[in-house]
Amino acid sequence: MENLEEKILQADSLEVLEKVRVELFGKKGVIAAQFAKMKEVPGPEKKAFAEGLNKSKAALQKSFDTRFEVLKAEEIERVLKSEEIDVSLYGSLAQKGALHPVMETMDKIIDYFVALNFAVESGPMVEDDFHNFEALNLPKYHPARDMQDTFYFNDGGLLRTHTSPVQIRTMLETKPPIRMIAPGTVFRRDFDVTHTPMFHQVEGLVVDAKGKVSFANLKAILTDFLQYMFGEVEVRFRPSFFPFTEPSAEVDISCIFCEGEGCRICSHTGWLEVLGCGIVDPNVFKSVGYEDVSGYAFGLGVERFAMLMHKIPDLRSLFEGDIRLLEQFR
Ligand code: DAH
Fold first, then answer.
1. Residues 175 and 33 reside in one and the same domain
2. Which candidate among 4, 51, 184, 253 keeps its CA 20 to 30 Å from the CA of 220?
3. What is the pTM of this model?
């Protein structure tokens, strides 16, 4: 049985060892064959024969078990080596995305008004004359309707020049009281450092029973809103004109670049204009069939807010898609 032992010791892998196992210990293996010879052994010698066989079998089994452990350990070692992870190697860094500064600013604005229970409304970008102009008390001869500002389609449709038509659509669809904002994309024929043909606005409208909505309410909410957006700034209301509000005001904040000292960006006035607002003109209510109501409205340009908040000098750079600019806002 010595060469059998040799076979076990020479097995250099688990597969080979398995073959050896079948060859030796299997049903038709060498050992089984030896036991089969028992029949031919004469009676008195049977005992000694069996003892000898069992001894040899036990010895072989022991060698086998030892060899198995060795080969198994080697196998584990090899697998561990091949699957080893070098934690000092550089990984591939996942690029983290971020919101575009205009959308981030939009979200911040929306968050403020949603917290005050304003509904978020929307309307179509392709508008008609009635919603974009007529119902907003913009008479036919008003300069805002000039071909220079508005993109018209041949069929008389147009790209909305502001989000104010959403005021009209919402009032036509619902009954007062109304408390809404309308964030959205708007279009004008304009292109320079502070204007792009496509930009974003947020419109606001509050309507309630006559006498319930005042200019003081408007002033309070917008002052708080602007301080939420820009921090510790002064806010002032300047008389102005919009066809859809009367009285109307433009709202300025103290210049965030020079803190009111006067610089190039605020044209040495110490103030930056940030939005338009006013008390809803009775003609607007008339055009949607509202009676005995009062209301205020406001509208602002989101890009202008983003430019001021991030101190971006050229508006056009926001829409060039240059990844180097966008990466600064991650
Ligand atoms: N629609 C105006 C614009 O595009 C902004 C605006 C001003 C909206 C005053 C208003 C408002 O609702 O009351 O310039």
1. no
2. 184
3. 0.73
